[in-house]
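Retro notes (design track)

What went well: tokenization of the new backbones is finally stable.
What didn't: we kept losing track of which sequence belonged to which structure.
Fix going forward: every design gets posted as structure first, then sequence, in one message. First example under the new rule, 295 residues:
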């Protein structure tokens, strides 16, 4: 665990109120609406020996303000740039700007001097959109090398009825979503369906990076005896992050992509999609889910 890290600056609002015109069958009227806040975050990486220290921006992402240190830590870990918090000297939210102003939408990550950084990986390894055109086979091979393991191993067993309850539990825990309808969420549950932790963000990747980053900063990675629930679809990028964190079971309210299914099959992850009501589909490794007798 990182010692004596500075806390995030004063919390920023994750919602704002705006005046709108609300149109209904009987006409229109003035009203107030709550919107989820979206702002850019720049992640800056500092690495190398003291005499030749390098500083480089490695990511610029749109996110909901808050939990920025978790987001940065989770991003670096799930993208294979750091192997653990022992390689990190400091993670600081905010940077000095011009004059007395502080650049609030910046996180600076200082690595220890003996940590080597592959700049080529920074350019090659980030799959930030579903339209980036990465080759499936190449992507899976690169992931195996980055994680330095072939599959997720765990004795986790989950009863199917537990999965039925998860979307409702997640929705109840989504404070900002409940008032804005504008955020994605990622959550960890234990095998009995108890909510362990949840993060929200305008970006589904950011929500998961924040969730995993919190575990990383608490020295609780890999997270092997949990269920990861995603509020939307299951993409390759999200399964990649789950695999890097050692998550054995990923459930999504929406559909998985074909490459996400390939990743789950190859790397030992149980992947559940279309989890709605008392229905879901299992796309890989069904042995971790116990069905009622007669199923």
């Amino acid at each position: 665990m990182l010692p004596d890290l500075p806390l995030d600056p004063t919390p920023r609002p994750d919602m704002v109120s705006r005046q709108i015109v609300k149109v209904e069958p009987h006409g229109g009227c003035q009203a107030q609406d709550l919107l989820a806040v979206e702002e850019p975050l720049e992640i800056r990486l500092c690495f190398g020996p003291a005499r030749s220290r390098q500083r480089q921006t490695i990511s610029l992402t749109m996110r909901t303000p808050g939990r920025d240190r978790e987001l940065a830590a989770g991003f670096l870990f799930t993208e294979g740039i750091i192997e653990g918090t022992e390689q990190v000297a400091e993670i600081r939210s905010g940077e000095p700007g011009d004059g007395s102003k502080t650049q609030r939408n910046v996180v600076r990550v200082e690595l220890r001097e003996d940590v080597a950084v592959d700049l080529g990986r920074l350019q090659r390894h980030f799959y930030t959109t579903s339209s980036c055109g990465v080759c499936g086979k190449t992507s899976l091979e690169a992931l195996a090398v980055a994680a330095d393991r072939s599959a997720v191993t765990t004795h986790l067993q989950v009863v199917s009825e537990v999965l039925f309850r998860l979307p409702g539990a997640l929705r109840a825990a989504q404070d900002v979503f409940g008032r804005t309808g504008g955020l994605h969420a990622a959550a960890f549950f234990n095998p009995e369906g108890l909510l362990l932790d949840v993060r929200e963000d305008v970006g589904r990747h950011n929500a998961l990076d924040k969730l995993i980053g919190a575990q990383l900063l608490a020295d609780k990675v890999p997270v092997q005896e949990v269920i990861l629930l995603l509020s939307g679809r299951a993409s390759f990028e999200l399964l990649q992050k789950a695999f890097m964190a050692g998550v054995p079971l990923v459930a999504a309210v929406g559909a998985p992509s074909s490459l996400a299914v390939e990743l789950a099959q190859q790397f030992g992850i149980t992947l559940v999609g279309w989890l709605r009501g008392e229905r879901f589909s299992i796309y890989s490794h069904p042995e971790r889910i116990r069905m009622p007798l007669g199923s």
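Added context from the reviewer: Residues 3-7, 124-137 have pLDDT under 50 and may be disordered.
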